[in-house]
Amino acid sequence: MPVTNFTTPEKYQYLNGFQSYHETEAIPDTLPIGANSPQKPNHGLYAEKLSGTAFTAPRSENLQTWVYRILPSAAHLPFEKYSGYEAPTTVHQIPQQLRWDPFDLDEKADWVHGLKQLGGVGSPTTKTGLAIFIFAAGVSMPAQQAFSSADGDFLVVVQHGVLDIQTELGNLLVRPNEIAVIPRGIKYRVDLPAGPVRGYILELFSGHFKLPELGPIGSNGLANARDFQAPVAAFDDKEYAPGSWIVFTKYDGHLFSATQGHTPFDVVGWHGLYYPYKYDLGRFNTMGTTSFDHPDPSIYTVLANPSADFVIFPPRWLVGEDTFRPPWYHRNTMSEFMGLVMGEYDAKSGGGFRAAGASLHNVMSAHGPDADTHTKASNADLVPTKVGEGSMAFMFESPLMIGVTDWGLETCRKVQPEYNADSWVPLKRHFRRPE
Ligand SMILES: [Fe+2]
Question: When you count CB atoms within 10 A of the terminal residue's CB, does the N or C end of the chain come out lower?
């Protein structure tokens, strides 16, 4: 079921619609009429363009936003390499099936310092590939700090706690069972109003998410466009001392910082198609078989991109007849990184895949139900059954071969060495030659 939509009118108001053209102003008459870049914008503001695609991208893909702000983003001192953040130096491309115990909470780190890269492939320098992070933070970011990634779009899956995200374009409150997407370059800061947070991030180095095509499904279903929520303009007009703000930028995996004497959260109005948004996974309208056969997991795609799709396994009814209801054994050209927000994932009953843990089945690495699940599903009474009640598993499914960082393999100390031995080695022969 959807997360109850707690809102406080003055801080969290949302504009509904996926990649719809939005316009919002915190003070009347901020947005110019007709012109985007008038000689003198209203209220003494500066006009600034934020582009998320090439100017010449096809109209259906073109994402650009105009912001009207108190001071331009360029008004900062030079960037310096920031030494307080460790970027991985390499990733290991290995065929080994991997499963991780729940990742630790961290009471001390803030958002910026609580980002741990678990895996990745490609490079932000050529805008190819992706990165996967685990985040765990216990304190809000300092009041006068902001962060952005020039490397790619962050898709944030909250597993624990609440993120109060102040972005240049407004505020987003993101709770477990919700996701947020913060596009490349958008500055934000993260407060933790309900204590420690933990979750998963998929960073896309290339392009942006779209809603999947619905084809024969028709005009509604899966994630409906109207359920995506963008923030309304909100700004801070306080004056700050020179150099009192620190703005971090993730750039080719490394962090750089620059100081400035004004807040980046000074956008009084904006209009366009390039903005952060959130989505409540409980609003996903699940589709599935009503006759036989386990559908491919693409039927559960929330957001799509050529480098990775975001797929969920929400509570749903299984009614298929003469059907092995979990996924049969498979080897895919796609790599599958899975996480669990809450509850139990219905295709694994052995208890090894737990909330806040993860698994990675890389390109062509064989996997499927563990031996227990196989036995149960092969003998199940195929009556209508609700699975995944109180659960939300998800997958970042990518055609790319995902490398794993040293943090993911060793430093985090969560890899389960007995994954193969526990899951599939116990499978027994059932073959009988016909007489
Ligand atoms: Fe799979």
Answer: C
